[in-house]
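Chapter summary example.
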Amino acid sequence: MTTYEAMPFHLETERLVLRPWAESDAAEFCALLSERGNGTPTVERIRTSIAELLAATADTGIALLPIQRREEGDFIGYCGLIIGRSTPEEPEIAYELFQRVHGNGYATEAAGAVLHAAVATGRKRLWSTVGAWNTQSLRVLEKLGFERDHVSTEDNGEVVWLTRSLP
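The structure predicted for these 167 residues follows.
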């Protein structure tokens, strides 16, 4: 396997800060996940998930990072690179934000910062997988230059696979 540089784990944009997870993020992370409509995980379970995310970051050199608004300082979601349905050589970009902040361009801004961080690792391509119903996420990825590759059918419906070559 080719060795890649670790991505930066602290990213800043005009309005956002993406940084490593802290145990203090657990309650807000629970609240975000509960918006999916599948119940609310326990804070203990999320603390375990945060520890797993940090361990995966140490192993892979890529990270899923909490997003905070710079001025307000509040946790609004996460964005980063994951293995997901892909590979360490061509990871997936992933993001999820609280519904209350949708429509403000935060997902595009955060994902753009992560895209630039991915370029710095030396990778040549990224993937993203999005539910076909999620037109907002598909629009974000199209703004960032991702192109549809194929569609698969999974237990929860159709999934659109998108890819983007990196400079």
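To summarize the output: The chain has four helices and eight strands.
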